[in-house]
Amino acid sequence: MSSDPAIPALEPRGEGHRFVIYGDACAGEPGGRHEANFERVNSVVRRFSPAPEFIVFPGDEIIGLTRDEAALRAQWRHWFEVEMAWLDRDRIPMFHTTANHTTYDPMSERVFAEVMAHLPRNGPPGQDGLSYFVRRGDLLMVFVHTLWSGLGGEGHVETAWLDATLADHADARHKLVIGHHPVFPVNGFEGPFQREIGPPHAEAFWRILVRHEVVAYLCSHILAFDVQVHQGVLQVTTAGAGTAHRMPEGVEYLHALQAALDDRGFRFRAVDDSGTLREALSWPPILPPVVWWQEMTAGPVADTRIADGPLDASVRCWRICGHASGGAARAQTLVEGSAGDDAVPPLWIGLAGPDQRLLVVLGSAPGRSPHTWYGPPLPPGQPFDIQIALHGAMGPGGLLWRWDEAAPWTSLRGASAQGLERVAPVTAWTVGHTAVSAADRPFLGSELRVWTAHAPQGEI
């Protein structure tokens, strides 16, 4: 029994659900290279107090990837009987998904279904023990097989059964869908089928989640902690249970997620293998009504840090409206936040390209290229009204946009592994052009107006 102090668990506010999510251990081999890492993460999970009601493990429990069925079964025995022997699964059930290290061919799918005999057998035809759903009171969890051999293997997922299951449980107050592969790229690591669900399924899959008002899609596979939102549905990637690699190294870390779900939203904390809180988020953000936002004027300001590290949950918002130019392709500034020096500015919001696409550019370290995120195009020659938010606790997924207050938030697309946490303070704002001069990348349309708000979110 560990003598280390208990780590307070994240608990629901009133009625709700308290659980843990962690995945990608690639263990199962006595003395294997990932075993010690997995043990450190498990030792942290054992310290959560009170203990979780259940655990979600979105795949890659073992190293797998062998055609030797006896060796594969031996890995599973070691994982359950040695590495996870500490867990009383009658008291704290653990729910699993298939994954690329565990269900990579028909033989391994059959073995997975057999060693997971305790999981429900209520999935689609041909996927008994591979896809299933669990109903716990007002919570529905649907576990999908994102590499079914019957559909094509890695990156392929069935959607008709998912749609029907969510429809059948429309009365569930909270809905989660869990699979191994992300739908949207994480940290710039992307590649259809191998790193995320492939194009034949991805769009339909996400439309189903949006239509049924799913809270979040929980996944792993990319060895990182990442959170994004698309059309109001979260994609939470947590793959830090023990696999020795990081995506990328020096930024990501071994971890497990404490999670709490209640009528006020979904919250989670990423706790690393030393027991240190690294990142935390409460969704949805609490923002003042747009009518309370202040109109923005250019000029110097006191040092304004965009985000004070990954635990800064504050949200900075802009409403930007105007009339787009008739078709200019060159870069046009909407808002710039500069740092009063010759370095690339901490923040630039503008349009670029023949489709006048929304871009947000964050300054990086001195001598390094800035990082760019992109959003929707603005129709040339048409009026526009768009909102942008920078959420300090969401990492690279925290650059958000929506059309208006009634619309859901969506993360801008980017390829960075970091978000706002290293952006320098802003010392001056300009509207409609850069701080260099009124002639530098000016807005070429008309009637440009900007409003802004800052909304601290409190501790999580």
Q: What does the model show?
A:
This protein is mainly beta and 460 residues long. The chain has helices spanning 35-45, 69-83, 106-115, 160-168, 199-211; strands at 7-8, 16-21, 48-49, 54-57, 94-96, 132-136, 139-143, 174-178, 216-219, 225-230, 233-238, 255-262, 265-272, 277-283, 294-295, 299-304, 315-323, 332-338, 347-352, 357-362, 371-377, 383-391, 399-402, 410-411, 413-414, 426-431, 446-455. The strands form 5 sheets. Strands 16-26-18-19-20-21-25 form a 7-stranded antiparallel sheet, with no helix packed on it. The two termini are 29 Å apart.
Compute the number of strand runs: 27
- Beginning-to-end CA distance, first to last residue: 29 Å
Low-confidence stretches: none
In the sheet with the most strands, the strands line up as: 16-26-18-19-20-21-25
Helix fraction bin: 10-25%
**Shape verdict:** elongated
Provide the residue-averaged pLDDT: 94
Major sheet description: 7 strands, antiparallel
Radius of gyration: 23 Å
Instruction: Briefly note the structural class of the backbone.
Output: mainly beta
